[in-house]
Structure formats: structure tokens, C-alpha cells
Design brief:
Layout lengths: L11 E3 L3 H6 L2 E6 L10 H15 L4 E6 L4 H13 L2 E7 L11 H8 L2 E6 L1 H4 L5 H11 L3 E3 L6 H7 L12 E6 L3 H9 L5 E6 L6 H8 L5 E4 L12 H14 L8 H13 L8 E6 L5 H11 L7
Parallel strand pairs: 2-10, 3-4, 3-6, 4-5, 7-8, 7-10, 8-9
Antiparallel strand pairs: 1-2
Helix pairs in contact: 2-3, 2-7, 3-4, 7-8
The structure holds pyridoxal-5'-phosphate.
């Protein structure tokens, strides 16, 4: 079934937790993670119109970029297999060249037909450079290019479909932020009475500029305090939080994005950042496939694992 011929919508799951009762806050999780077994969460939204465009252009190859644990790489590989089109992943880190099959995300992507080009961190920085893309075209022939993290105007258009009419009852909409496309789509489709909070998974606030380019609305704020040291960095405190959250709610969180957002949101609720009676909708953007890869890292460091 072509992804763009589906019109998937997720459910809002209301959480019942002591802290929410104590602070008189309503918190629901929009379960985008349950949309599709392999192209889950914001990946479904971001790929939907891009796959349609690739098909309309008659492209038989998708080329994209990502790191070793990228949810986006995993989703593109699966989408390519589903559609019978070739996929190429330009992967950050030459060191992976010899041991990528030990990385669960890359091993699965390969199984789904993706072929890799490993580049140094320095070369990877050129990923938006025309000369670099021209070289890739010489090597692989014509392809439909999907940028890192899948974010482009068609991805933002897809993410504008995450919120539905009933979601206007919420005062605050939360999501995690990597390349900014997801939060951009949410801001565009939010109502003026709502505030959109983007929890950055990366250190720093440079992504603010990207978000400002995606949207003209001003009802949003980037939260930068819960990156835990930076992209894909993790601490024991975060592992404990994610494991407790799963034990209490039955809902798995990923360690790179949604775990950090929920940790931050809890912290903010605890510290009375929201008025009593506030209704919050947090988008679960998926990323669960990354747990296995993170556990291999934690295991090597002799640290407690994600359950
Ligand atoms: C699971 C998950 N959540 C959130 C994000 C952040 O989305 P964006 O890059 O659109 O900011 C990503 C990355 O794309 C992701 O994989």
C-alpha cells in the first residue's frame, strides 16, 4: 500500500499520573508512534508527500543522509523496500565502514535494501553543498534527495496534518526538535490560543532560526535545557526516567528525542511552569527502533539498560 494513499490518524492517550493530579494538569500523548510499525511517528508525516513527489517525478532512487542511529534512515529504507525503489544512505562517520553490521539501525536498513556511502564528519558537513550533490549524482545517477532528518517544505506540510480539529481543546502542544520540521508543521496548524513548545534534542538554540523560516506564527518557544549533553547523549538519570515512565504508563520512549521531551515536561510541571488546569498535548514522534542501538552503547559502558 502506497504510504501517501493512506490517511493515518493517531489517538490521544490521556495519562493518569500522581504528579498530574497533584498539579491539576491534563496531559495527553498523541501516539504518532503507533501509526506504522516501521515508518512511525513524524517519519510517516515527513515522508508522505516526499514519496508522492518522488513517484510523480518518476525517480527510482531515494538518497538521504543520517547518523548511525537515525530513525529517518530506518524509515526511508523501509519505505524504499515497500515501494520497490532503491535507497542510498549517506552516513556520517567513516569509522562505521567496517563495523556497520553491528549497528542495529544500519543492519536493518541494509536488510531493507538500503546501500550506504560512509563519509567523514568533515565531508558530511557538505551535505547541502551543490558540488557534493553533483558528485553523488555522478556516482549514483539521478535520485530524489531527502535532506537529513527528512525536513523540507513537503515534510512540514505532512507535519501540519498531525493536529486535528479536536486538538483545539489543548492549551499547550509539545514536541521534540531535531531539524525543526515537525515543530514547524505543528506551529503552522496550531491555533492562536495555543502555545507550541519545542524541546530541543541538540545543544544550543541555533535551530530557532530554521523554525522562524518555516513559520510566520509567534506562538512558540524553544526549550533548550533538556538535551542531556547533546544529540544522542544519555545519562543514568534519563535511563531511569524512561524505564519508570514505561513501567507506570506502558508507553516506551526513545532515548534521543521523546525521552528527553517527557523528562523536560515533567520537570516543568513539577516546577509549576504551567497554570492549574492547563491541558497539554505532547506528540510521541516515535523513534523506538533506536532503543536497541542505544542499549549496545550503554552495555559497552557498563551502564543500566533501557527496558
Ligand atoms: C523520533 C523523533 N522525534 C523527533 C524528531 C525531531 O524531528 P525534527 O527533525 O523534525 O525536528 C526526530 C528526528 O527527525 C525523530 O526521529
Amino acid at each position: 500500500m502506497w504510504l501517501n494513499s493512506l490517511n493515518l490518524q493517531s489517538i490521544n492517550q490521556y495519562l493518569q499520573l500522581p504528579i498530574l493530579e497533584e498539579k491539576n494538569i491534563i496531559l495527553a500523548l498523541k501516539r504518532e508512534d503507533l501509526l506504522h510499525p516501521f515508518i512511525s511517528g513524524n517519519k510517516y508525516r515527513k515522508l508522505k508527500y516526499n514519496l508522492k513527489a518522488a513517484r510523480e517525478k518518476g525517480c527510482s532512487t531515494l538518497l538521504t543522509f543520517g547518523g548511525a542511529f537515525s530513525n529517518h534512515i530506518a524509515a526511508v529504507a523501509f519505505a524504499g523496500r515497500e515501494r520497490g525503489i532503491k535507497t542510498i544512505g549517506v552516513i556520517r562517520g567513516e569509522e562505521l565502514q567496517d563495523n556497520w553490521h553491528q549497528n542495529p539501525t544500519l543492519a536493518q536498513a541494509y536488510e531493507n535494501g538500503m546501500r550506504f556511502k560512509f563519509v567523514s564528519r568533515q565531508a558530511y558537513k557538505e551535505k547541502d553543498n551543490t558540488e557534493f550533490i553533483t558528485q553523488l549524482k555522478k556516482q549514483y545517477g539521478d535520485f530524489y534527495l531527502i535532506p537529513e532528518g527528512g525536513t523540507n517544505p513537503l515534510a512540514v506540510k505532512g507535519c501540519e496534518e498531525i493536529l486535528v480539529a479536536q486538538d483545539s481543546e489543548f492549551d499547550v502542544i509539545c514536541t521534540c526538535v531535531g531539524t525543526g520540521g515537525t515543530v514547524g508543521g505543528l506551529i503552522n496548524s496550531s491555533h492562536q490560543h495555543q502555545q507550541v513548545l519545542g524541546f530541543s534534542a541538540l545543544k544550543g538554540s541555533f535551530i530557532k532560526e530554521t523554525i522562524s523560516q518555516i513559520t510566520i506564527k509567534k506562538n512558540w518557544r524553544l526549550i533548550t535545557e533538556y538535551h542531556f549533553g547533546g544529540y544522542a547523549k544519555i545519562t543514568n538519570e534519563l535511563v531511569v526516567f524512561i524505564n519508570n515512565f514505561k513501567a507506570e504508563t506502558g508507553i516506551p520512549l526513545d532515548p534521543i528525542y521523546t525521552g528527553k521531551m517527557l523528562f523536560g515536561l515533567y520537570h516543568m510541571i513539577k516546577n509549576d511552569n504551567f497554570a492549574e488546569g492547563t491541558k497539554i498535548l505532547a506528540v510521541h514522534t516515535g523513534g523506538i527502533q533506536g532503543i536497541e542501538g542505544m542499549n549496545t552503547v550503554l552495555k559497552k559502558k557498563n551502564l543500566p539498560l533501557l527496558e
